[in-house]
Write a structure and sequence with these properties.
homodimer, alpha+beta, 2 domains, 3 helices
Chain lengths: 180, 180
Amino acid sequence: MKKFEEKTISSKFIYKGRIITLLVDEVKLPNGKTGNREIIKHPGAVAIIAITEDNKIILVEQYRKALERSLIEIPAGKMEQGEAPEATALRELEEETGYTTNSLRYIQSFATSPGFADEVIHVYFADNLVQVEEKAALDEDEFVELMHVSLEEMGDLIANKQVYDAKTAFAYLWLKDYLK
Amino acid sequence: MKKFEEKTISSKFIYKGRIITLLVDEVKLPNGKTGNREIIKHPGAVAIIAITEDNKIILVEQYRKALERSLIEIPAGKMEQGEAPEATALRELEEETGYTTNSLRYIQSFATSPGFADEVIHVYFADNLVQVEEKAALDEDEFVELMHVSLEEMGDLIANKQVYDAKTAFAYLWLKDYLK
């Protein structure tokens, strides 16, 4: 998968934050000319399509500063250094929803914004949920509200744009097929 | 949609590139404490689920420097300043595939990485495709290869991770439902 490869001539470090790092690479294009690519490095993330015994989907509402609004999304979070995606999935599920499971199934991974970021999100499916006795704490700057919705209600949340992110849009279509 | 709103205390400009801008905002969290949010500003993008008369899906392969690999994706591109999403959709469809259409249908919009970016992608569906006589030029740093695949072949491309981005993963599930 190296078709039209753009070899790095030089890489300029711009910024390293808590979550993202910004680089600007000068590259050699396939036609021999040079170009610049702005690149965001991100540790990667995990998202969980989680359903209860009565096929209610677990969603979390949280404020998304980049968009200056709150969004209703499937539970998700970024991977800690050295953490396997399955471990992230179970950790985030517990932190954000208070549930855990012994049946976690890998669905699919995808890059969220391949034009400028290396973020990949790994999507899992969880059912057979069990409430944990003492819920793990959220990150100290994280505030979420839990919802349990039917597939039809999730469709309504998409129609009125309260659900408005790629992974949750994917999850809805996946569930529509799975629950039919 | 302001639940758990994080008011901006100050916004620090870090970098403005050709495509993205990086800011770091200091915010007041819902519990009264302060926190920092790294924010990528992006002009927004459009993607097109385009099918031929015989239900072949039009995909483009291109190198994605951030991931250091090529990806096979549905046609897409970022919006120019002041450009309506429908205009971007028709422009990108023509530039990347050589097709145009008089039947463009809006499907859905979603944020790609709400945790750190404001990028929203607007997804359209196009059929009744007509080859344009003189294809519009790609951007000068853009190199793509066109593919026409069946739904089944698209499933194989996902299984072997040649298709590996969120909008195209969404497009596959959408088409699975649409073409059934």
